[in-house]
Amino acid sequence: MPVSPAYRPEPRFFDLGADYADAVQAADFPQTTLRFRNDRAAAEVGLEGLSEAEWIAAFGRFDPLPGQPGPIAMRYHGHQFRHYNPDLGDGRGFLAAQMRDLSGRLLDLGTKGSGTTPWSRSGDGRLTLKGGVREALAAAMLEAQGVPTSRAFSLIETGEALERGDEPSPTRSAVLVRLSHSHIRFGTFQRAAYLGRVDQIEALIEHVRTLYHPTVAAGDAPGLMAAVVEASAKLTARWIAAGFVHGVLNTDNLNVTGESFDYGPWRFLPEYDPAFTAAYFDQTGLYAFARQPEAVFWNLTQLAGCLKLVAEVEPLTKALNGFGPAYIRELRAAFLMRLGVSSLGEAADQRLVDATLALLREGGAAMRWEPLFFDWFGGFASSARALSGPRAKHYQGEAFDAFRFALMEHEPDRIERLEHPMFAAREPEEMLIDEVEAIWAAIDADDDWAPFQAKLARLEAARVTWGFSA
Predict the structure, then answer these.
(1) pTM recorded for the entire structure
(2) Which of 90, 108, 252, 282 is catalytic?
(3) Among 41, 38, 50, 37, which residue's Cα sits nearest to residue 4?
(4) Which residue in 64, 348, 437, 443 is deepest, having the highest Cβ count within 10 Å?
């Protein structure tokens, strides 16, 4: 299989040995129709030169890429809605490959919907095509907004009719491949702790420290905890600034690099609503929008509990308690990034965050979440555009005055970004459920992929324009 000189295979998870994963085989699908390939991501790992047939062989039939030993289903446990489940693991996916990107960062190619594994339980190991489309859209939107996220790498329709209880059935099937920094979950540590395997905890610490947090000293479990806390705080703050609700913040859905992945019932806020939930089965609002920091912190405490097997409680507690300050600091940075302005110091930055949230709260459905950041991107330099736009009549009153004064204090960051044609539009790119359903409806009814492709193209233009760094 031809790959470019930039392709650098390095299957490091296999270094841990057989206690952490099981060798598996992909399903033999009746159909393999390529629906999406991420050529920009492929270029980062030296796979952009694959022909369509070679791509399908690699990511539809899963012929091993050069230097890769074959797929493995990773073992892990987890708390699901705070109930411990020792019967988890990769039930419809596997780790297909690991490689270095152009910057030298280790990346994973992981699957979703690739067939049954020893951890499938009663599941069929499949993914609906709609689920694959939704994940590709979520990842593209979040990447554009500067949220650390996995990326949809490939989506191939597989020609099976699936029965599902939460969408009209039978429905079309697909296999998704995602590119991400790590698939080592909090639940990976939980499994080792549950089994009382101190040796596995120590091996995981060294593996994660070496590959993902190299500034942490060898054997320093509290130092690793602190690094994961910082990464998780940044991720959570970016979710909040994006108005994003993950939906299922179980310990098996958070990883050691602080990267969002495994998108299921996700939603973006239509308007400011702290109690907004993404999952219909989250009946108590455990993972509601404003409770996501609480949920992430709770999950971090479970990780710290695992590390108690090899470290003292006091330094682990100190590392864990760094989450609150780190989250507030990262939230200020995230809001400034989304508003396109520079920092003026902690006090002024916090005034702007508070004023922005107050204006969003007051504006409600008439203002929505995303349009405020669009209207005022670049700070007060956008005042003429915002005050002549579709929400002009809502930019008045005490809440707006407080927001305006706080925004005026901050200088625009890279003001040249406002010259992009994107800001000549009256409305921003959003990712609300009605649009997602309309994109899927075109595919489902007429096999029309044009709206999906057009949306991804617009999000790519927004990503380049905003220039946010995750």
Answers:
(1) 0.96
(2) 252
(3) 50
(4) 443
